[in-house]
Amino acid sequence: MSIRCLAVDDEQHALDIISRYVEKIPNLELVAATTDAIEAFQLVQREPIDLVFLDVHMPEITGIQFLKLLGGRTKVILCTAYPEYALEGYDLDIVDYLLKPMRFERFLKAVQKAHTLLEAEEQPKTASTSATSFLDDYIFVKTETKGKLLKVVLSEIRYVEGLGNYVSIFTDDKRIVTLLTIKELEERLPKPYFLRVHKSYIVALGKIQGIDGNQIMVAEGHIPLGDTYREAFFNGLQQKIVASKK
User: Fold this and answer.
1) Which of 27, 70, 203, 216 is the most exposed place for a label (fewest CB within 10 A)?
2) Secondary structure letter of residue 190 according to DSSP
3) Rounded to two decimals, what is the model's pTM?
């Protein structure tokens, strides 16, 4: 597949390096290379852009502000001399983080990662491929310890409990407390594997052991099923319920 990309950096020599690297990779098409972040953002809104190489320190809009404005519209690789922004960048779902001066081998690795993500999004999501990718997928979450991230394998999650600005993630062997709201985590967990069942709970469908009225049974006990979420929950279960009757 061909990847249409955009380079945004307030230093021309950095753009020249990215442009030169892009020329070496056959499936990359550089749509534009600009020192103007506002122009770049307008371009992303007008044109189909698959990938943005983005600097952090820019005068009018910082790279982090740019990322937030994008809202996940396109994949982003941060390119900067400041490693302290890596944590915030990954929290905003960047593909990779390249430290300047950038080596071509490292640049190529980041592009290959973006290519894999984009290709996966283009492929038809059959039941078998979706299940396989889900079993291998994971997220990183912030912990209460500053600067520390923990890897959470999605297939190990049993349920999630909201605690205001925190959530507890209960996995097969541990409990992880992370600095996220339940809504933010809900947006990062793939449907239909995870469903919101209560204002304070998300459950992994594959970990449900039974349903008793307004209670969902999991290994640790019972999770309440809220009236607001009841219909969507049973709609999500319907295929499994039908299959169990055959």
Assistant:
1) 27
2) P
3) 0.52
Contact 79, 9 (CB under 8 A): yes
Side chain identity at residue 39, one-letter code = E
- CB count in 10 Å sphere of residue 5: 24
Contacts of 36 (CB under 8 A, 6+ apart): 60
pLDDT tens for 1-12 read 789 999 999 999
Query: pLDDT of 120-139, one tens digit each?
Result: 777 644 444 444 455 557 78
Q: Report the b/e string of 112-121 with b at 16+ CB within 10 A.
A: eebbeebeee
Range of the domain at 192: 129-245
Q: How many domains does the chain have?
A: 2
**Cis link prior to 192 (omega < 30° from 0)?**
yes
CATH of residue 225: 2.40.50.1020
Structure tokens at 82: 């400041």
3-state secondary structure of 176: strand
